[in-house]
Amino acid sequence: MKNALLIIVVLALIAIAGAAAKFAKPGTPDVDNKSDLIRVTSPLPNSEVKSPLVITGKARGTWFFEASFPIVMVDWDGRIIGEGHAEAKENWMTQDFVPFEATLTFNVDSNAYSNRGALILKKDNPSGLPEHDDAIEIPVVLIGASEPAKITAKLGEKININGVSITPIEVTQDSRCGSDVVCIWAGTVELKTKLESGASSTTTILTLNKALTFAGKKVTLEKVEPHPSSKANISASDYRFTFSVN
Fold this sequence. Notes:
Elements: H1 2-24, H2 28-33, E1 38-42, E2 47-49, E3 53-60, E4 68-74, E5 80-88, E6 97-104, E7 116-122, E8 135-142, E9 149-153, E10 159-161, E11 164-174, E12 189-197, E13 200-207, E14 212-214, E15 217-225, E16 240-245
Parallel strand pairs: 2-8
Antiparallel strand pairs: 1-3, 3-6, 4-5, 4-7, 5-6, 7-8, 9-16, 10-11, 11-12, 12-13, 14-15, 15-16
């Protein structure tokens, strides 16, 4: 009887130790095993993350397709709470490592059983064949409330934010009142912009502080810098545009 009880206790301790090993640092071996294919510099495994999250690292050119690859955030129960794409920062048509960056927004369920989650970076697989699938999981701790993702770009710079690629092309109107004069109308900015998400693509005009719906998300040109002055014109290379997507 005592021997049977001892065996039961030992088995229980082994089971508890196994569970602790599984959940203390979930996915970390996956990070190590894929280091020759993709390396994530931020976020690190088991770090606290909140929305919007900036993701950086480098991956072999074969991990990309058309200069991007999909990313998703899942919660403790495996539910997708955010998804988007990472964009290559250099030429991706190579076997070498290519730096990437993404900004991902996600919604944290305050009633979830655990605040544990995972960031999944998937190899883009245009063939759809399962033998070409691959992915890396980064275990994370989800904190904070969601906020609209924001990012700043200059003319001609392609950025990715919350699954939408944005390329500001041309300022078609800048009628803002100069900071050194008094105006009865504040004026506005209109920006010719290319928007892309998956198979969807459009070139449109974004107006300062007016949301435009694209691919089921609201894209807003929130801020344009520098502010105009009556004493000097703004050159195209000096413009900086802040966008939000939610």
